[in-house]
């Protein structure tokens, strides 16, 4: 890198707009979307798609709601030409969808392009000029007058040919005039070119659909706000502005294509060209998925169906041979995943409040989404929130896993004890733990056993069998201590007593059997996904232990929770 980069690179020249309007505007509706995945995206991949692959992608774009789709550069190759013919001859294009074809300002290319679209119902024909000095001077070696003359001449040819095809085949046409290098051009010159193109188009036929002026940041060379200034300046000087549509086609060289496009919409643009997930030359075109879902997250219908995002990601990855980054907005594998303890805590609290809101509202209404760290509900796109547990995770993360997998909403004190154990294990293993490992560690730490799996070789005490008589609420429990059955008081617990009395009575019986002096400090019960869950805390000499049990009946869940806690006491090996 240069110490003084100004020696090599020029700073952009800002526009002097004393009364710019776009910063105070708000976008309240989606633009017209055009997907150029089949053309601009396809030309930028190492292995271009076959006609069969293109056809499948075209159908997908239609199913996702695109009404304008750029399908080919027909004069560029036989494959491009043949694909357009396939679409038309096989009647693949719905009546409400317009296909777009692109062509340079050359007579032979224009005529070849019209051959390709013969018989189509609705066609956007895009002609383009390179107006930027760097293109005029380096590539084409032409003057401003040359650019204007070529633009007018070939616009007239396109219009006359379109008139013939309309008369012969009934095709409805709309002109899209692309300004290649718009963001690097002199704005007054761009206005001149577009004005002359409009005159040429309208002077050779009746006015039908408005001309689309497609303003391209072919190479992104300045901040997003500067592009918005350029769009606002252009449209403010364009004669009869209401008779034209302003479109933008932004590349991502500076990484701000989404911002530049959103700013351009504020500045007056009404149409956007781009690719799904930002495919395209160099750093790609603007990402239509991100743009659409940015609108969605603000309560604005995007006009595109982005449900089941994983399916779309997999499909486009296969088409392009380019994976979607795990951190890609909305669509990445890790977007709805939290590792940080603070994030996990905030998200868990927010999701719990959302659940409360759903339960309290009428069936035909949905509470506004308010979850920290999650700007959108992943389920809207077929995704789920995922907790990933590593040494940076906190108690809320592990608690979420236990709640999600086991259906247990564990008390805060248990969360803390579990998270400390999990963090220590993550550090020891030097990796994250998966849900199965976390649940196994929870079961080991608290001696948690489901009713169908009560016995365990590592538990000093376990419930061999348990039955609750429905007509007479009495629990008949067979308790094993050290592999031997015990008889007497612990085997009969009246369920008609208060819950705390059940716990105390059973704990007293175990104290007597084991020679302990444990006291029941806290007892909680709640409905869980798989029955009634009970949590108890016991203590002795300032030490405390938690236990958890679950069963179909409260009395049995209480017995299991106390057995869990006492096993934790015995496991601690403290001299009590």
TrEMBL record:
GO cellular component assignments: mitochondrion
EC numbers on record: 2.3.3.13
Record flagged with keyword Transferase: yes
InterPro entries linked: AIPM/Hcit_synth_CS (IPR002034), Aldolase_TIM (IPR013785), LeuA-like_post-cat (IPR054692), LeuA_allosteric_dom_sf (IPR036230), PYR_CT (IPR000891)
Gene Ontology BP, a term: L-leucine biosynthetic process
UniProt entry keywords in alphabetical sequence: Transferase
Catalytic activity: 3-methyl-2-oxobutanoate + acetyl-CoA + H2O = (2S)-2-isopropylmalate + CoA + H(+)
Domain of life: Eukaryota
Record-stated family: Belongs to the alpha-IPM synthase/homocitrate synthase family. LeuA type 2 subfamily.
Protein name: 2-isopropylmalate synthase
Native organism: Lentinula aff. detonsa
């Amino acid at each position: 890198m240069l110490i003084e980069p100004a020696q090599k690179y020029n700073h952009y020249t800002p526009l002097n707009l004393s009364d710019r309007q776009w910063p105070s505007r708000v976008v309240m509706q989606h633009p017209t979307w055009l997907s150029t995945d089949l053309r601009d995206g396809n030309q930028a991949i190492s292995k271009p798609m076959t006609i069969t692959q293109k056809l499948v992608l075209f159908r997908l774009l239609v199913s996702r709601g695109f009404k304008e789709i750029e399908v080919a550069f027909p004069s560029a190759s036989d494959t491009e030409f043949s694909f357009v013919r396939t679409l038309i001859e096989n009647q693949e294009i719905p009546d409400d969808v317009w296909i777009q074809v692109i062509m340079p300002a050359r007579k032979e290319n224009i005529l070849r392009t019209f051959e390709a679209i013969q018989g189509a119902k609705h066609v956007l024909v895009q002609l383009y000029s390179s107006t930027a000095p760097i293109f005029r001077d380096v590539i084409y070696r032409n003057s401003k007058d040359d650019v204007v003359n070529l633009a007018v001449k070939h616009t007239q040819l396109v219009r006359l040919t379109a008139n013939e095809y309309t008369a012969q085949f009934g095709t409805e046409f709309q002109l899209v005039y692309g300004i290649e290098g718009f963001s690097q051009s002199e704005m007054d010159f761009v206005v001149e070119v577009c004005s002359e193109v409009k005159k040429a188009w309208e002077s050779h036929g009746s006015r039908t659909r408005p001309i689309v002026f497609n303003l391209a940041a072919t190479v992104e060379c300045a901040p997003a706000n500067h592009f918005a200034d350029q769009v606002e300046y252009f449209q403010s000087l364009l004669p009869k502005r209401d008779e034209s549509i302003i479109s933008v086609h932004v590349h991502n060289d500076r990484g701000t294509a989404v911002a530049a496009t959103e700013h351009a919409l504020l500045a007056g643009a009404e149409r956007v060209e781009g690719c799904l997930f930002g495919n395209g030359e160099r750093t790609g075109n603007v990402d239509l998925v991100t743009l659409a879902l940015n609108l969605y997250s603000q309560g604005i219908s995007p006009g595109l169906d982005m449900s089941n995002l994983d399916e779309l990601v997999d499909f486009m990855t296969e088409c392009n041979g380019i994976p979607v980054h795990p951190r890609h907005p909305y669509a990445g594998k890790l977007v709805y995943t939290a590792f940080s303890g603070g994030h996990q805590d905030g998200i868990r609290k927010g999701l719990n409040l959302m659940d409360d809101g759903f339960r309290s509202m009428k069936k035909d209404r949905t509470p506004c989404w308010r979850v920290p760290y999650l700007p959108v509900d992943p389920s809207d796109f077929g995704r789920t929130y995922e907790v990933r547990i590593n040494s940076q995770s906190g108690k809320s993360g592990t608690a979420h896993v236990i709640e999600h997998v086991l259906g247990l909403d564990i008390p805060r004190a248990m969360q803390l004890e579990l998270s400390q154990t999990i963090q220590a294990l993550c550090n020891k293993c030097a990796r994250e733990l998966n849900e199965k490992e976390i649940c196994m560690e929870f079961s080991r730490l608290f001696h948690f056993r489901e009713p169908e799996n009560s016995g365990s070789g590592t538990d000093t005490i376990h419930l061999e069998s348990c039955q609750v008589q429905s007509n007479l609420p009495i629990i008949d429990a067979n308790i094993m201590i050290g592999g031997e059955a015990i008889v007497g008081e612990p085997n009969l617990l009246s369920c008609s007593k208060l819950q705390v009395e059940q716990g105390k009575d059973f704990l007293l019986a175990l104290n007597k059997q084991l020679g302990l002096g444990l006291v029941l400090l806290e007892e909680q019960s709640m409905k869980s996904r798989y029955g009634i869950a009970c949590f108890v805390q016991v203590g002795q000499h300032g030490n405390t232990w938690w236990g958890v049990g679950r069963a179909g009946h409260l009395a049995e869940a209480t017995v299991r929770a106390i057995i869990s806690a006492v096993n934790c006491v015995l496991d601690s090996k403290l001299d009590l």
